[in-house]
Specification:
There is one protein chain. This protein is mostly helical and 60 residues long. It has one domain. 90% of the residues lie in helices and 0% in strands. The chain is rod-shaped, with a radius of gyration of 22 Å. The mean pLDDT is 89.
């Protein structure tokens, strides 16, 4: 019975580690997405076009 209890504890620990890893990847992806958007906005602004104008063209 002790072995079964240990297996459940190990399984719970592994699940928690997996959840933590997924959260870290999500945070990293969010940061990359934000940085990519910022770089795109800067590139568009350097061309003398406003971000709002680009959004209106895309969604028109």
């Amino acid at each position: 019975m002790n072995q079964m209890s240990q297996l459940l504890t190990d399984k719970e620990r592994l699940i928690q580690e997996a959840i933590t890893m997924v959260d870290e990847v999500k945070k990293s992806n969010d940061a990359l997405r934000e940085r990519s958007e910022q770089l795109l906005k800067e590139k568009i602004a350097a061309q003398g076009v406003s971000w709002n104008a680009v959004c209106m063209m895309v969604y028109a």
